[in-house]
Amino acid sequence: MAQPRISAYLPPDIDPTKAALAFGRRALPKLNEELQSPELLTQQRALMALCDLVHDPEKVYQAIALGFLDSLKTLLVHQDQTIRQKTTEVLSIMALHSTGRDGLIRSGVVSALTGLLDDPVDICRKNTHRIFDVVAKLPQGAGGVLQAGLIPPLVLKLKMELDEIQELILDTLSNCLRVEVSEALAAGAVTVLKEKLSHPSAAIRSKAAWVLLEISSHAEGKIAVCEEEVIPVLVGLLEDTQPEVQVNSAGALMFAIVTPQGRSSAMGAEAIPPLLTLVAEETSKARLNAIKTLTLLAELPEGRKRLLDHRDTFQRCLDDPSEAVQRAAEIAITVIDWKP
Amino acid sequence: PSTLQVKRQRRAQKQVQARKLTQEQIRSGTPEPVEGRQHVYVQTELYLEEISDRVIEVDGECQTDEFLDRPPTPLFIPAKTGKDMATQIEEGELFDFDIEVKPILEVLVGKTVEQALLEVMEEEELAQLWSHQRAFAELRNAEFAELQRLEEQDRRIREEKERRRLEHLEKLRKQKETAEKIAARAFAQRYLADLIPSVFNNLHDSGFFYDPVERDIETEFLPWLMSEVEETLQKNVLGRMMLDSLIRMVVEKRLDEFSHPPPSDQTETPAEEPRAADAAPQVSDGADAADQAVAEEEETDQPVAEE
User: Fold this and answer.
1) Residue in A2, A259, A324 closest to B103 by CB
2) Which positions in chain A touch B110 (Cβ < 8 Å)?
3) Contact at 8 Å (CB) between A326 and A317?
4) How is chain B split into domains, by residue range?
5) Most distant CA pair in chain A: distance in Å?
6) pLDDT of residue B261
7) What does pTM read for this prediction?
8) Where found in the cell (chain B) (predicted)?
9) At B283, is the pLDDT very low, low, confident or very high (cuts 50, 70, 90)?
10) Across the A/B interface, how many CB contacts are shorter than 8 Å?
11) Which residues in B lie closer than 8 A to residue A6 (C-beta atoms)?
12) Could B142 and A26 be called an inter-chain contact, meaning their C-beta atoms sit closer than 8 Å?
């Protein structure tokens, strides 16, 4: 009779598309052998079973210790698209665990995945980019992605990929460019990103602004951003409807106008009024970035003159609950009041 | 039994017998049999056993076989047993659907909702983690931007300072150069102030500035004069010498004449006269007055000599 108690056991798993799992410790080695078998159906069924198993971190650890990654690497270049899709799915789930990430970086799966960037199947490419995105969140992962020379192809893909994949690429780029920026600049990333700043999708705009932020935190990035005249576009984005976009573009401006050319270009683009609106809003997330940007602009004489009138806006920021905003407001007031 | 065991058996038996003999000698063994009975050795077992301390050991091994993969369980369809019977159940006889379905539904819905809740919770947790990370990233970016701003400020101040310092150094250097130039010029002026007079003096002393007439007189006239004077004097001397020799000759001749008879006195004196006259015009070729005087003296001398 059926009972209302929820059973502790999982329901019986009789999915015909999955291979049967051996008992206990023998499960993964058997799957490994099945993955290397010449028969297509066996491989597919083994992959389906593996997909389910790999959600468990202990299984991930065991799989990597058994050397699954080598067999998976060979399967990445298989002709059958189901196999490729499932392999990339398995790898992307593995990458969500930290042991998986370590294993992926160490066994050089990242460089093996570069071949899949041009795969005709969308799902494969999406999973590939998902893997890059998650791997790049680690510092060693970002280093691995940089070493595999992935930045130029990624920048190229940014121009022509689907929107979802573009978001993943932008996330990957933002994590990698935090480390080193010269390759991306050589591949013309700033031009591509400038186009993306006017994309209809808000998520892409905010992520593109975030990538520009990371680029301009480096010195050569700042020079490139000033040369490509991105600053007026960013100033335009400050008045965007989405708060995310505002935050990120304010942040990108914050870094880009540290150089004197950036500052003069920002003054020329009339950056002060939108920034002041952002600061005046009590609940704006962009407050911190906007205050910092205005601090930078206040170091110019004409900026200081204009901001002296708005000093009380900064006074009001001192009551903000966030401590960082308070500090930034204090520093801003000090800079505005400074006399040579 | 092997030969070794047989040997051991025999040895053991011998030892036992030897021990028995000795023991029998030392102490009494079993008591004497009662009358009418006898002690007899009897073998109770079928086989002789060797009595020894060492236990016989034999090694044996046992191992399970390597695991074989169990083939997948084939679908078990039990064979049909028993007789087929049919029965008809009317509605409402067995159970009331609505009441009975409740627990099943509860389970179904409960599990679904639970799974859904779990997923939602996971998503929320993930979103929280991302937002936490974003907040941290923002703080970090803000601090980084502050750092870069201060760096930039510092760099500008340092550059400005460096430029000012260089300017100042340049200014000092120029000042020093100008002072040195002035000092050098003053010194040179002073040094060269009496250069010109001294130069002129030196030149004057070394005779570069001369009066041309005076020099001319000095260089040409006077030597010529001196040479002329010398010539005249020489002529004078020559004349005198000539005169002396004349006088001497005359005197010697007069002596000769006065010592000898004077036959040709008149013819010799006119010969002497042209000679003396020759000498006199030769002598008087000099343009000097002294010469003239000497010539006149000689002329006067001649007539004196003639007389």
Assistant:
1) A2
2) 4, 6
3) yes
4) 212-260+278-306
5) 88
6) 67
7) 0.63
8) Cytoplasm, Cytoskeleton, Flagellum axoneme
9) very low
10) 64
11) 107, 110-111, 114
12) no
By Cβ distance, the residue of B144, B149, B152 closest to A217 is B144
The more confidently predicted of residues B42 and A168 is A168
One-letter-per-residue 3-state SS of chain A: CCCCCCCCCCCCCCCCCCCCCCCHHHHHHHHHHHHCCCCHHHHHHHHHHHHHHCCCHHHHHHHHHHCHHHHHHHHCCCCCHHHHHHHHHHHHHHHCCHHHHHHHHHCCHHHHHHHHHHCCCHHHHHHHHHHHHHHHCCHHHHHHHHHCCCHHHHHHHHHHCCHHHHHHHHHHHHHHHCCCCHHHHHCCHHHHHHHHCCCCCHHHHHHHHHHHHHHHCCHHHHHHHHHCCHHHHHHHHCCCCCHHHHHHHHHHHHHHCCCHHHHHHHHHCCCHHHHHHHHHCCCCCCHHHHHHHHHHHHCCHHHHHHHHCCHHHHHHHCCCCCHHHHHHHHHHHHHHHCCC
Mind telling me how many Å the CA of B69 is from chain A's nearest CA?
7
Look-up: residue for tokens 């999406």?
A126
Interface test with A, best of B66, B123, B148 (most A CBs within 10 A): B148
Is the model's pLDDT at B181 over the cut of 80? yes
Shortest alpha-carbon distance between residue B101 and chain A (Å): 9
Give the integer Cα–Cα distance in Å for A173 and A161.
15
Range in A239-248, A294-303, B103-112, B285-294 the model is least confident about: B285-294
Contact (CB<8Å) B67/A20: no
In 10 A of CB A164, how many CB atoms? 15
Give the one of A26, A289, A299 whose C-beta lies nearest to B142's C-beta.
A289
Name the residue in chain A with its Cα closest to that of B74. Answer: A20
The DSSP line for chain B is --HHHHHHHHHHHHHHHHHHHHHHHHS--SPPPPTT--------SSS-----SSPP-------PPPPPPPPPPPP--PPP-S--------TTTS--HHHHHHHHHHHHHHHHHHHHHHHHHHHHHHHHHHHHHHHHHHHHHHHHHHHHHHHHHHHHHHHHHHHHHHHHHHHHHHHHHHHHHHHHHHHHHHHHHTHHHHHHHHHHHTT-S--HHHHHIIIIIHHHHHHHHHHHHHHHHHHHHHHHHHHHHHHHHHHHHHHS--SSHHHHHHHHHHHHHHHHHHHTTS--HHHHHHHHHHHHHHHHHH-
Smallest CA–CA distance from A174 into chain B, residue: B137
Closest by Cβ to A26, choosing from B67, B104, B142:
B67
B103–A259 CB contact, under 8 Å: no
B141: which chain A residues are within 8 Å (Cβ-Cβ)?
213, 217, 251, 254-255, 289
Chain A CB contacts of B106 below 8 Å: 4
Q: pLDDT-based confidence at B288, cuts 50/70/90? A: very low
Task: Please tell me which of the candidates B67, B104, B142 has its beta carbon nearest to residue A328.
Answer: B142
User: Distance between CA B29 and CA B41 in Å, rounded?
Assistant: 14
Residues of A in contact with B139 (CB under 8 A): 288, 324
Q: Decide if A295 touches B, using CB distance below 8 A.
A: yes
Q: How confident is the model at residue B1 (pLDDT cuts 50, 70, 90)?
A: low
